[in-house]
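Async update (no meeting this week)

Hi team, since we skipped the sync, here's where things stand on the single-chain job. The sequence we agreed to prioritize is pasted below, unchanged from the tracker. I ran it this morning and attached the output directly underneath so nobody has to dig for it. Comments welcome in thread, and please keep replies under the output.
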Amino acid sequence: MKVQKCLCLHCKPLAETLFKPIIQDNYYNYQHHFMFELDRVQAANLISKFSSSVLTPIF
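Output:
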C-alpha cells in the first residue's frame, strides 16, 4: 500500500518588491491586467523566495 504525504509550510508574506520582478512579464495592457499562469522559471523563483521565509513546517 502506498500513502501520499504532503508537506505544507507556513511562510512569511512576500513584499511586493520581492515578487513583482519575478512576475513582471505577466502584466499587460498598461499594468491593469494580469495573466495568472506562471512558467516553470517564475514558479521556481517564487518557491525559492517563499522557502527562504519559512516560519514552521506542518506535517
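Quick observations from my side:
The chain has one domain: 8-58.
The chain has two helices and four strands.
Reply here if anything looks off.
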